[in-house]
UniProtKB/TrEMBL annotation:
Residues 106-347 form the TauD/TfdA-like domain. The keyword Chloroplast does not apply. It comes from Glossina brevipalpis. InterPro entries: AlphaKG_dependent_hydroxylases, GBBH-like_N, GBBH-like_N_sf, TauD-like_sf, TauD/TfdA-like, Trimethyllysine_dOase. This is Trimethyllysine dioxygenase, mitochondrial. Residues 11-79 form the Gamma-butyrobetaine hydroxylase-like N-terminal domain. Gene3D superfamilies: 3.30.2020.30, Clavaminate synthase-like. It catalyses: N(6),N(6),N(6)-trimethyl-L-lysine + 2-oxoglutarate + O2 = (3S)-3-hydroxy-N(6),N(6),N(6)-trimethyl-L-lysine + succinate + CO2. One of its GO terms (biological process) is carnitine biosynthetic process. Pathway: Amine and polyamine biosynthesis; carnitine biosynthesis. One of its GO terms (cellular component) is mitochondrion. Coiled coil: none annotated.
């Protein structure tokens, strides 16, 4: 190990020498245009070691001469911020909420289409709110699929699935999915049967004629998961480890995937994805029968928290208002309805959502 003092933080950093050489950013090792390394890891000597080093007088740079003659220069802040212990300390912008809390922030979640189209600052505010609360609204959008698509493409590229890019649905059974009905839909996330579920979902009610009901509701899965973790840590642990199979079957399509209801980051322990759809569950064959009882106790307790009325934000989506919500965080559902209702919407890939937030300087 190689030890250096980070004067700015008044800390001693212990660095693996191979790691340090692997992070050389000189023109020989790193392409400044493509932001990619220029060498094969096997090009580095197996016995690579620091021969000489010193900090610059201002304490900002570390200069290293290696035993193979190569010279490197490092920004000490870059080295410090790249250490795993410091990554764990980074701020999480997400703000868990119950219905009373999100209602107090409702005005901060609404953005006019004209402002979204004309203002980069508005787009940044919208994406930041989406990171923080997992849900935003774009208002004053003409009630048709074309304008809905235009509004979303102003911010994100659209994800293509077998439903298409933009999809329109009512109670006509166009797909083998309960969403294509007038029935009640309980809280869920979409695409649990995909290997990589959509990161965001977009919905826009185009019309509701000659009927009642159909109110949509949203529940912050992050808040529910924290409640489970705080009061029932054993149940939380089980739901982060047991994979739940899901499937989607119709003519020409058979999607299947298994993953836990709660996925955590292996480094920080942060909750990074909530996954729940009681309708899409496939044969549950990923757990020995001797462990089933404890799993079902955990699952039921989590559902009780999710379905607590205090966590449910209910509203009637109206033509002209698009809702965008985090499909890895926010559970959504719908009350049954009568009459004829037409919805349009789309998905956005998680990687595109996160990329936009990084480009705008909202997240690391």
């Amino acid at each position: 190990m190689f030890e250096i003092k980070c004067e700015k933080k008044n800390e001693i950093l212990k660095l693996n020498q191979f790691w340090l050489r692997d992070h050389c950013r000189c023109l020989q090792c790193y392409n400044q245009v493509t932001k990619q390394r220029k060498y094969n890891l096997l090009d580095l000597p197996e016995d690579i070691a620091v021969k000489d080093w010193h900090n610059t007088e201002d304490g900002k740079l570390l200069k290293v001469k290696w035993n193979d003659g190569h010279c490197s220069e490092y920004d000490l802040d870059f080295i410090y911020n790249s250490q795993m212990d410091n990554i764990k300390l980074r701020n999480d912008l997400r703000m868990p909420w119950k219905s009373s809390e999100i209602l107090s922030k409702e005005n901060d979640l609404k953005f006019k289409l004209s402002h979204v189209v004309s203002s980069e600052d508005c787009v940044k505010s919208l994406v930041k709110a989406l990171v923080q609360y997992g849900i935003v609204f774009i208002e004053q959008v003409p009630a048709n699929t074309t304008m809905t698509e235009m509004a979303i493409r102003r911010i994100f590229p659209i994800m293509k699935t077998f439903f298409g890019e933009m999809f329109t649905f009512s109670d006509a059974p166009d797909h083998a999915d309960t969403a294509y009905s007038k029935d009640y839909l309980g809280p869920h996330t979409d695409n649990t049967y995909f290997c990589d579920a959509a990161g965001l979902q977009v919905l826009h009610c185009l019309q509701h004629l000659n009927g009642t009901g159909g109110e949509n509701f949203f529940i912050d899965g992050l808040n529910a998961a924290y409640e489970l973790k705080n009061f029932h840590p054993e149940f939380f642990d089980i739901l982060t480890k047991v994979s739940i199979p899901a499937e989607y079957i119709e003519t020409g399509q058979y999607h299947k995937h298994s993953a836990p209801l709660i996925r955590t980051d292996s480094i920080t322990g942060d909750i990074i994805q909530l996954r729940l759809n009681v309708y899409d569950r496939a044969m549950f064959n990923t757990l020995p029968q001797r462990d089933m009882q404890k799993f079902y106790e955990s699952f039921r307790k989590f559902l009780q928290i999710i379905q607590n009325p205090a966590n449910k934000w209910c509203m009637k989506l109206q033509p002209g208002t698009i809702v965008i919500f985090d499909n890895w965080r926010v559970y959504h559902g719908r009350h049954s309805y009568t009459g004829h209702r037409t919805m349009t919407g789309c998905y956005v890939q998680r990687t595109d959502f996160r990329s936009k937030a990084r480009v705008l300087g909202i997240i690391d």
